[in-house]
Design brief:
alpha/beta, 24% helix, 13 strands, six-stranded mixed beta sheet, five-stranded mixed beta sheet, Purple Acid Phosphatase, chain A, domain 2, globular, single chain
């Protein structure tokens, strides 16, 4: 390692996911005020360090309306003025997001962060359609001189919860095989699972991140909510393509889950 290489700083990226803002400010998801919970996450994370970029990996809204996305953007930009990449999740509707999800890549020294759209409006499951796959392939070829970090919403692999795994990216295996053979992808981060997932495919690190509101219980056969607090993930990217990571939670957040809302949420 040369002295100049050793002096290159490690990049810091903050990932948040599954925010689930309601149409009315202060609205709740299973009893959790999702405005308050994402605010607590951002306040804690950004008080600890200022990242080089923020990734928001989908389900920004639970009730998809333009004013919800405008409110989220204000919540974020009141606290962070740096580059951000925002993706759609299965609860989001692209046409209502306005310009929020138009950005598809972030450029950082030696790295490019690519958005990969795995959602389809009004469908819970994930897939990367032919047009999106082709766009991703072209981007990976274009940026072969950079390390690539991929961001998407749905997991490309099973996470150990059958009720969630049915909605993973249907062509995830094909996608990962292509990336491992033909790209400089070092890691893929995703949401949707509302829990910590840490796995790999060959040399590609696969990372699922807790929600900024409610968490799903790992290893469950049917819908089950965990008592873990709202969380977020730090990603540390070095100049050689190395990725290290940590998950933090807002441990003092007064989380109270109200399961009486469950049936109502299933029909919304």
């Amino acid at each position: 390692m040369t002295d100049s290489a050793a002096e290159q700083p490690v990049l810091t990226v903050l990932q948040i996911t599954d925010v689930h803002l309601r149409r009315q400010p202060g609205g709740s998801l299973l009893g959790v005020d999702t405005d308050a919970s994402v605010s607590a996450v951002l306040d804690q994370a950004l008080a600890r360090q200022v990242p080089d970029a923020v990734l928001v990996t989908g389900d920004v809204a639970h009730d998809s309306h333009p004013e919800v996305y405008q409110r989220f953007w204000k919540l974020l930009t009141d606290r962070f003025q740096g580059p951000a990449l925002v993706l759609a999740g299965n609860h989001d509707v692209t046409r209502r997001m306005g310009s929020l999800a138009e950005r598809r890549e972030l450029h950082l020294p030696g790295w490019v962060v690519l958005a990969m759209d795995s959602h389809e409006d009004d469908q819970p499951g994930g897939s990367v359609d032919a047009a999106e796959f082709a766009s991703l392939q072209n981007a990976c070829k274009k940026f072969r001189d950079c390390h690539v970090l991929l961001a998407t919403h749905h997991p490309p692999i099973e996470v150990g919860c059958p009720w969630l795994d049915k909605d993973r990216i249907t062509n995830g295996a094909e996608l990962l095989e292509w990336l491992s053979e033909h790209s400089t992808a070092r890691a893929m981060v995703f949401g949707h699972a509302h829990q910590v997932v840490e796995s790999s495919y060959r040399d590609i690190i696969l990372l699922g991140t807790p929600s900024t509101c409610i968490q799903f219980a790992p290893g469950t056969q049917s819908f089950s909510v965990d008592d873990q607090k709202p969380g977020y993930r730090w990603l540390y990217l070095d100049h050689e393509g190395g990725v290290t990571t940590s998950v933090e939670r807002v441990d003092d957040y007064p989380l109270t889950v109200d399961m009486s809302q469950f049936q109502q949420e299933l029909t919304n």
